[in-house]
Amino acid sequence: MIAVIDTGICNLRSVTKALEAVGASIRVVRSPAEVAAAGAAGLVLPGVGALRDCVASLRASRLDATVRDWIGADRPFLGVCLGMQALFEHSEEGNVTGLGVFPGRVVRFRRPPEFKIPHMGWNTVRFTQPRSPLAVQLAPDGEAFYFVHSFYCRPDDPALVLAACDYGGEFCAAIGRGRVFATQFHPEKSQAKGLQIYRNFAAVAA
Length: 206
Hints:
By secondary structure, this protein is α/β, with parallel strands linked by helices.
């Protein structure tokens, strides 16, 4: 069983359908009580849109504390897009204070004019932790995933970086520590390789 947090602004349907496609049982949750009742082995935090709204929704529902406690206990967790950015201390997008799970900032792309912002479309991701459970059956030196974002995470601890991507300069495309993972790219929009990400996470949560 994997619980998927509904913040009200996330791409809930596409994420749940992708998880179901790899054989996971899903429970959509909107409160700490629903997380507890689900008895889930894994927790997923998806998100699209504005980080301010995502973080505000988590705080209003008190799921911010649930996410912190879950990650603190090294239980299987996957953040997607805003679900990754929300884990850090601060974002330049609207001057938002994040959940502060990991030290670091979310910063806006500052690139030459030939690099369009938002960074949108397919790009190659290189796994810097090739032995991570999230990277099983994925080529460590390059797999293509789908991105849509204008901001990216800059962790204080380089060891937290699970994957990197180049767009006018290298940036953090995913993080991983223990059984906690998050991706800036959208696995649910990334066809077979994206499904492999969800398959790998479901295996960690099994």
